[in-house]
Amino acid sequence: MHTLDIIYMLIALTLGTQLCRFLPFFLPKNLMNHPILQKLNRILPLVIMVLLLITSVSIPQNNQGYVLFGAQVLALVSVVISYKYLNNILLSVSLGILNLNLSLWLFS
């Protein structure tokens, strides 16, 4: 990528992020209390966390890398379960990292 393309991408990402942050201040309150938006507000952090974790899982190729794949899936499951019960993103991600490293240490 060229430097100018990277600058345009950063500007677009910044504007998109700021639009999402400031849009609730300008929308009417009755629209913000709509049940669909309330449900989206409750489930969105978990969905984003799962999407980020799924994209980081490495798929084994040529019958190699199954230990790493298994450890990553185990860490992913532990993050989802811990977030569901503890409802704390920092603690859930920390437990997932700990679980991944312990699994790799045990299985290697």
UniProtKB/TrEMBL annotation:
The chain crosses the membrane at residues 6-28, 40-59, 65-82, 89-107. This is AzlD domain-containing protein. It comes from Ursidibacter maritimus. Keywords: Membrane, Transmembrane, Transmembrane helix.
